[in-house]
Amino acid sequence: MSDDVTEILGEADPTDRRTFLARASALSLAIPAAGAALVACSPGGQRRSDSATKTVVSGTRGEARQPHNSDSRLDSSVLKGEHRAGSSPTGSTQGGQSVAFQRWDPTLPPASTTGRVQLSWHAREAPVRISDDTVIAGWTFEGDIPGPIVHCRVGDTVEFTLTNDADIPHSMDFHAAQIDPKQAFRSVPRGQSVSFTFKPKYAGAYMYHCGTAPVLMHIGSGMFGAIVVSPREPLPAAKEFVLVQNEYYLADAAGGVRASDYQKMLNTLPDFVAFNGRPSQYIKEPIRVKVGDRVRFWVVSAGPSHPCNFHVVGEQFDRVYVGAPPASPLIGVQTFSVPPGGGMVYELVCDIPGEFPFVNHGFGHGQKGAIGILSVEA
Amino acid sequence: MSDDVTEILGEADPTDRRTFLARASALSLAIPAAGAALVACSPGGQRRSDSATKTVVSGTRGEARQPHNSDSRLDSSVLKGEHRAGSSPTGSTQGGQSVAFQRWDPTLPPASTTGRVQLSWHAREAPVRISDDTVIAGWTFEGDIPGPIVHCRVGDTVEFTLTNDADIPHSMDFHAAQIDPKQAFRSVPRGQSVSFTFKPKYAGAYMYHCGTAPVLMHIGSGMFGAIVVSPREPLPAAKEFVLVQNEYYLADAAGGVRASDYQKMLNTLPDFVAFNGRPSQYIKEPIRVKVGDRVRFWVVSAGPSHPCNFHVVGEQFDRVYVGAPPASPLIGVQTFSVPPGGGMVYELVCDIPGEFPFVNHGFGHGQKGAIGILSVEA
Amino acid sequence: MSDDVTEILGEADPTDRRTFLARASALSLAIPAAGAALVACSPGGQRRSDSATKTVVSGTRGEARQPHNSDSRLDSSVLKGEHRAGSSPTGSTQGGQSVAFQRWDPTLPPASTTGRVQLSWHAREAPVRISDDTVIAGWTFEGDIPGPIVHCRVGDTVEFTLTNDADIPHSMDFHAAQIDPKQAFRSVPRGQSVSFTFKPKYAGAYMYHCGTAPVLMHIGSGMFGAIVVSPREPLPAAKEFVLVQNEYYLADAAGGVRASDYQKMLNTLPDFVAFNGRPSQYIKEPIRVKVGDRVRFWVVSAGPSHPCNFHVVGEQFDRVYVGAPPASPLIGVQTFSVPPGGGMVYELVCDIPGEFPFVNHGFGHGQKGAIGILSVEA
Questions:
Q1: In a domain, C36, yes or no
Q2: pLDDT digits (tens, 9 = 90+) for B44-79
Q3: Coil, strand, or helix at residue A315?
Q4: Smallest Cα–Cα separation from B130: which of B319, B371, B369, B350?
């Protein structure tokens, strides 16, 4: 394999932003979307597609370069000659200032009872208000950050289709699937779709995310979520919630909307850290349960870079499933770390009423919004 | 809940120091103490309480703002109208240069034999010499960093009272307690006390810390320690030690004393990392045991941000308790990571004499002082 | 113990590069080698040994200072008066630009069948081409980064000798050994050797590394590798591979070769992250197995600072050995974090053909080269 591939994978010296941008440009990558997001939201509200969003398809070595999925090696051929993002009107983040804040419901939805889950999702750019004063130029699954919760059981059949509505290629990588990523997780250009089917083998809280290169940029811009796989033999009855931690690395606002900043992602110092996409949202509107409830948190650390040292103030987990529940839980835990890209299951019993904050106890980052409240009512 | 609360919690854009300071000022938070510490130790030794330590009680939106416990939501009412730190003489760090260095004894004290532990502690500012050439303007429990070791057994009754001698509010959060933090862990202003009682349910090495917002600042300034909970059924006889790892983020010295720097904490790049508050103290004065001893380290990672990848050079742990001992230990381990906010128990048997350094094997930070020596004598 | 020792250990304020360099110079440490590497590779190709590589043996306090092993306290006496690196011709990195790239074979070699492993290695400086356009001025065991894979079984006898061919002192610390580091892991000056023997007690993927102070510098410059200890009772038959993750912190190129940068190491923001020393090498030349194979990865995280959140795209681990295999594996895992200084064992079964990327899913660092492909052929 030529070193073009390494270059395509975006793994050249990542500290050199100019190199990255030059190459991203050569690859029709990142630049058009970042440009579009910024331009669409620029103070004047006018898109300058003639320059900022122009896609340079010819590479610096005199060859056409195409986007590529760093988690696979096939899709460059898929996309060859088909991707001309150019000046397409990615105005989906226009008017981002007017987007309303919406609490993200952490409740685990019921699992399918038919043994079959059918999903047809769209990858698209969308403005997402993550707090009263911050709107993100998101790269999303289905228009929100995180994407929708998927809930199924071990052995169910998940039929998934992704259609790409965005200018740059995207893809889908489910950590709950055992499948050839070269085919299933391949990148698709605007207007095209990819479909695949899988049967989750293990229970657990699994991450899904866009696997298109550079993966860091796609996860960091909002393309992630959780698929919860319950075991066939039900776990003890509980109030069940999903918490997906992620980091935001943001450029200055343009037109009231902040794009994601790849260089900041490489520097791994986030501006915000959030559960379910909105910093501190469950402070304002806590998660509510009753005394006597068992509570089960399916916690995914989407990263892109940091673990979630999950802790509930005033409580202790009676079990933490580090692998697939119900196998070998840890007993009696104050905090245990979910690695970026991972998921774990935390259980506690609410013996007493009160307000129990849950946090990422790595406070240097946790202080940036990875905090909420579990309200236990009598 | 209004967005004032989010603001009070100190979770606004943390990268904007001016915003933080402005808000901290509005909250009678951080500024007075930081100011006091700096001023008290300024070269001229003169306090300029008229400016640097002034507390602005009126918020920027025309309402009185009060300090608040980010781990709870109640205490703002507790404190309403009562906290006027203003120009009170927090001269507790004056004369810091003359404070002597004292090795922090890592020996686990015996557990109470009465089934009852009664603690009456004070939160106060104190200069702490952490090395020959560095004195910290500490925020402390009982005047030292870390605070005192607490040792009890599962099911014991711990009766705890905290009295706040400092200008800004403080609180206490025991990870070994299952209790409503809204009441028990609430912040108290200068001169007031909070009391609560709990019975530890699980064995383990648990962190305690001040939970007043911003928690990052309070942990980062020295308000943390370890409570060791032994199981009812004793673990194998061993020489038992407590190691609490923490990070220091320091401003330049003023009057020979260095205050903690909140922006550095948010940047997560510490100046020093230490076991039991003093970088490399157990190099100079090792922990000493005899050949044949089983050694049990109760390791707490206070953070505020980094894990402790605990390792003993020339040794291997025959067991590491990741959850509550004696449940499901890991067998045969070179290093395992204690997450920030967590605690684990590491055991080894000293078969041979020698000098065995113990380290945080994440050397980028470990090199900054998280190193000591276990001396095994024949 | 005097505070000279703390100074010798290199644990003074690590953020002050001048202090470090001054002390390193006083210690005949780091400076000469870094100087040699830089000078040897300077554009003109001429060594200026008269200045850059000069060793100052007299300390700043008027006493002779000697290199010291931070993992031990003895070797300063070993070296006293014997180390005069001075202007010795450490031209081993000269001509670095012409060094060819070589894929590092990740295949686990067979374990000794005699119950005995005899190793006689040399510590030496060597240029290592880690990618098409980057050559490192490496500090190495046996001339490569990582050093050679060692494979033995629990209870085997490992007889090891290290001879130091480099100007500055080096040493060897095997995490698989239970031995007095004060003797066995002591630093030796140029031209001298140290020998020791050990019998691994626990199975697992163990790190080895140079333990000479500052350890961060020695690991960060390339002196690390893996010793794999298989259990006496064989694990299930599998295709077995070794992956050692490390970070590179590099100064600008001088003469086409890049030296390691200690201040960057302290800042913990790497330029590259690699499996087996070369960023993305297994993208170009994948690891190849057949459908039906069980694959066992022995993963070591050499750091010096970051964990490896090991993940295989499109696959799930059916077991991860966090401690010594075959004890208590985790079942059904998407990713689990190997702490810096640690090692874990990851197993999966290749049920289907495809190309399965393996990554460090902490993408802020993983994106810098911790990625490869497992190709499963029909």
A1: no
A2: 233 323 332 222 222 222 232 333 333 333 232 222
A3: coil
A4: B369
Residue of A nearest to C309 (CA): A339
Q: Is the peptide bond before A326 cis (omega within 30 degrees of 0)?
A: yes
The Cα–Cα gap between C246 and C219 comes to 9
**Least-confidence region, from A111-125, A255-269, B14-28, C134-148:** B14-28
pLDDT at residue B39, as a whole number: 25
Q: Searching chain B, which residue's CA lies closest to the CA of residue C210?
A: B313
B180 found inside a domain: yes
Length of chain C measured in residues: 378
Q: Under a CB-based contact definition with an 8 Å cutoff, are residues C42 and C35 in contact?
A: no
pLDDT of C33 strictly over 50:
no
Query: Alpha-carbon distance C186 to C173, whole Å?
Result: 9
pLDDT of residue A139: 98
Q: What CATH number does the domain containing C353 carry?
A: 2.60.40.420
Confidence of residue A321 (pLDDT cuts 50, 70, 90): very high
Q: How many CA atoms lie within 13 A of A128 on its CB side?
A: 29
Location of structure tokens 């608040």: B68
Domain-embedded: residue A74: no
Token reading at A171: 């893809």
A327 exposed, middle or buried (CB, 10 Å; 0-12, 13-18, 19+)? middle
Residues B185 and B139 both lie in one domain: yes
Nearest to C202 among B332, B359, B369 (CB): B332
Residues from chain C contacting residue A71 (CB–CB below 8 Å): 313-314, 357, 359
The two structure tokens encoding residue B334? 């070179």
Does C328 or A308 have the greater pLDDT score?
A308
Within a domain: residue B337?
yes
Is B143 in the same domain as B99?
Answer: yes
A283 contacts in chain B (CB < 8 Å): 1, 5-6, 9, 11, 73
Q: How far does C45 lie from chain A, in Å, by closest CA?
A: 25
Side-chain-facing half-sphere of B205: CA atoms under 13 Å: 29
Task: Give me C106's structure tokens.
Answer: 């990740």
Pairing of β B116-131 and β A294-303: unpaired
Residue B342 belongs to domain spanning: 243-377
Task: Name which of C328, C362, C371 is nearest A340 (Cβ-Cβ).
Answer: C362
Q: Look at phi and psi of residue B341 and say left if phi exceeds 0, alpha if psi is from -120 to 50, else beta.
A: left
Measured between CA atoms, how close is A72 to chain B, in angstroms?
A: 31
When CB atoms are compared, the residue of A177, A214, A307 closest to C337 is: A307
C113: buried, middle or exposed (CB in 10 Å: 19+, 13-18, 0-12)? exposed
pLDDT at residue B97 in the model = 82
> Given a cut of 90, is residue A96 above it in pLDDT?
no
My answer on whether C294 and C198 are in the same domain is no
Q: Which residues of A touch B187 (CB under 8 A)?
A: none
Into how many domains does chain C fold?
3
Q: What is the pLDDT of residues A15-59, one digit of tens each?
A: 333 333 333 333 323 322 332 332 222 222 332 233 322 222 222
Whether B224 and B209 have beta carbons less than 8 Å apart is answered as: yes
